[in-house]
Amino acid sequence: MPVAKAYLTQLFLSTLYTLALFGSIMAALLTLPLVVPASLEQQLGVQPWMDQATSEPGDLYCILGAILACVLGLFYRSMNRVVAPAKAGPRLNYQTATLLYMLAMSYGLAIFVTTGLAPQYRDCETYTQKLNGGVRQYRGLSFRVELCGAGPRESDRLDRVRLRIYDESGDLRAVRYFGVQWGRDFPALLEYSRDHLSYFDAGDEEDFARVIAMPPTLSDWVQTRIPLLD
After folding, report:
1. I need a surface site. Which of 38, 83, 94, 167 has the fewest CB within 10 A?
2. Closest CA to 202 of 214, 184, 216
3. Residue 167 and residue 103 share a domain
4. Chain mean pLDDT for the chain
C-alpha cells in the first residue's frame, strides 16, 4: 500500500482510537461517584474530591491533561510506524503534519473538556443585583454588567461567578470568572472608577483585587471570541 494511502487510513483509525480511549477514561473519572458505594466514597474521599473538581477543576484538568499527553503519545507512535518506510524528506513532512494534527486535536479536546466541566451559571438577575452590576456609563457609552452564579459549595460557601460586559448594541465585550465567599467579611460588590471597574476574587485571597478597563479593550473583545481564552 502506498505510504500516502496508508498514512490517511492510519490517521482515521488512530483518531477514532484516541477519541474512544480518552472519552472512556474521562467518562470513568466522572462516573466514579455513581459506581463507588457511598460508604466507600467517604473513606476514599471520592465525593468531596468530585465536588471540589466541579467548582475548582484545576486538579482535574491536570489529570486529564496528563492522560491526554499519554494518549497522544500512543497516537504519534502509531502514525510514525506508518511513515517509517518513506524517504527522509517525505517522512519529515508526514511527521510535521502529524504534529500539527495532534495540536489541532488537542485544542478541540480541551474545548470539549472545559465546556463539559464548566459550571452552569444561572440566576443572572439576582446575582447582578446582589453584586452591584447593571447599566453603567463610560465615555458617553452605556455598558451592561451582568453577573451569574453557579451556586455556593456546601463545604465553604465559595460561589463561582461569571461577569459579562455588553455594549449598547448587546455585543459581548468582556468576560471574567471569579469567586464570591458568602457569609464572610470579604469584599464582594463590584466597584466602579472613572476608567475601570474592580471585582474581588475570593478564590485567590493572595491576589484577589482585579480590574477591567472600561470601556473594555480590543484584547478583551478578542478573548471573548476565542475558546479557552475567555
Report:
1. 38
2. 184
3. no
4. 83
